[in-house]
Automatic annotation (TrEMBL):
The keyword Ribosomal protein applies. PROSITE patterns: RIBOSOMAL_L31. It comes from Streptomyces lunaelactis. This is Large ribosomal subunit protein bL31B. Part of the 50S ribosomal subunit. Belongs to the bacterial ribosomal protein bL31 family. Type B subfamily.
Length: 86
């Protein structure tokens, strides 16, 4: 790698407020807020809205949308007007 062109990577704590979970990883992001981690060191903390701990895809709480019903409702509303214009 070329020297002096890559951003500095440092340990950062990402905190998911929705799931009340925090995890330590490396990132180029920085924050003025600090938090003391389990190892006794203080790290910058970045609050996120969604992580793998709270995202429906990863937790298995996702909903299946009724797309067939939506298409039928769209065709009932707009299908006759669109066919009349053609």
């Amino acid at each position: 790698m070329k020297p002096r062109i890559h951003p500095v990577s440092r340990p950062v704590v990402f905190r998911d407020r929705a799931a009340d979970v925090a995890f330590l990883t490396r990132s180029t992001a920085d924050s003025a807020q600090r938090v003391e981690w389990e190892d006794g060191n203080t790290y910058p903390v970045i609050d996120v809205e969604t992580s793998s701990a709270s995202h429906p895809f990863y937790t298995g709480r996702s909903r299946v949308l009724d797309t067939a019903g939506r298409v039928e409702r769209f065709e009932r509303r707009y299908g006759t007007a669109a066919a009349a214009r053609n």
